[in-house]
Amino acid sequence: MKKINLLIALSISLALASCNNGSEKTATTETKDTASSIANEPAKTGPTLPMDVITIYHAVKDYNQWRPGFDADSVARNASGLSFVAVERSADKPNDVKIVLAPSDMAKAKAFVADPRLKNVMDKLGVISKPVINFWSIIRFNAEKRIPGGALIEINLKVKDFDAWVKVFDGEGTARRASDGWEDIVMGRGKDDPNMVHLVFGVTDMAKLKARLDSPELKKLMEEAGVVCAPTITFYNDASK
C-alpha cells in the first residue's frame, strides 16, 4: 500500500534502524498471546476483547467492479467462520484495498486464506497484487471513534518490548493525540510476534496530524518507547458501507 509523504516518513524514521515491517504473511503457527493486563479490559462498546482479526491488503483493477464480487463471496467466508469487520481504501490509491475479517476459529481461517480457491476468486475479481495477510489480536477497540466513511490512519510497528512501549504510549495519552488531530480506535498485537503493534486512528484534523508525525518530539517519544524500525504508515478512507 502507498505510504504517506516521503518527507514525513523519513522524519519519523530518523535514528530508527531499518528493518522488516513485520507483515505476518499467511502464518503457519499460532503463538500464545502474551498481552498485558490491559488486554482484558473491556471496550466501552464493541466486541469482547481480546479479539482475533485478519487484515488482507491488495490492489484491484477497479474497486467498483471488485466490491460486488467480494460481497457475494461472504457465503464462503461465513462458512469458514470469518465475519466481516471492515473494508478500507487507500486515500492516495483508492484501488488499494484493506479488508478486515474476524475469525471464529483461527485454524479454519488460515486454511481459508491458504486455499487455492481464494486465489482463483481474487483473480476473477481483478486483484492485481500479491495479497499481504496479517494476523492480529485486538486488545483495544473504541467503536464510537470510528466514523462511517471517515478518514483513518494505520500504523504498524515493531517494538523491543510491548509492555514497555504501551506505558510510553499511554503516557502520551488519548487527550494529547486528540488535540493533534487523531483519535484512538484500534490497538492490536501480532499473533505470531506479540512485539508487532497494529494501530488504527480516526483522523479529525489532517494538517495537525501530519505536523505531529513530522515533529522531533514524536521521534524522541518513539525512541524512548523502544520502536526498533521505521513504522509502516498508511492513510485510508472507510468503505465498509
Care to describe what's here?
The chain is built from 9 helices and 8 strands. It is an alpha+beta fold and 241 residues long. It has a single domain (6-24, 35-238), classed as 2-Layer Sandwich (Alpha-Beta Plaits), CATH 3.30.70.100. It has an 8-stranded antiparallel β-barrel with strand order 1-3-2-8-5-7-6-4. The longest helix has 11 residues, at 162-172. The chain is globular and about 45 Å long.
Question: How would you concisely characterize the structure shown here?
Answer:
The chain has helices spanning 6-13, 63-72, 74-79, 106-114, 116-124, 162-172, 174-179, 206-213, 216-225, and strands at 51-59, 82-90, 96-103, 132-141, 151-158, 182-190, 196-203, 232-238. It is an alpha+beta fold and 241 residues long.
Distance between the termini: 21 Å
**Helix and strand run:** HEHHEEHHEEHHEEHHE
Shape: globular
Main sheet, how many strands, which sense, barrel? Answer: 8 strands, antiparallel, barrel
Structural class: alpha+beta
Total domain units = 1
Keywords for this structure?
8 strands, single chain, globular, Alpha-Beta Plaits, 241 residues, alpha+beta
Compile the SSE list and pairings.
Elements: H1 6-13, E1 51-59, H2 63-72, H3 74-79, E2 82-90, E3 96-103, H4 106-114, H5 116-124, E4 132-141, E5 151-158, H6 162-172, H7 174-179, E6 182-190, E7 196-203, H8 206-213, H9 216-225, E8 232-238
Antiparallel strand pairs: 1-3, 1-4, 2-3, 2-8, 4-6, 5-7, 5-8, 6-7
Helix pairs in contact: 6-9
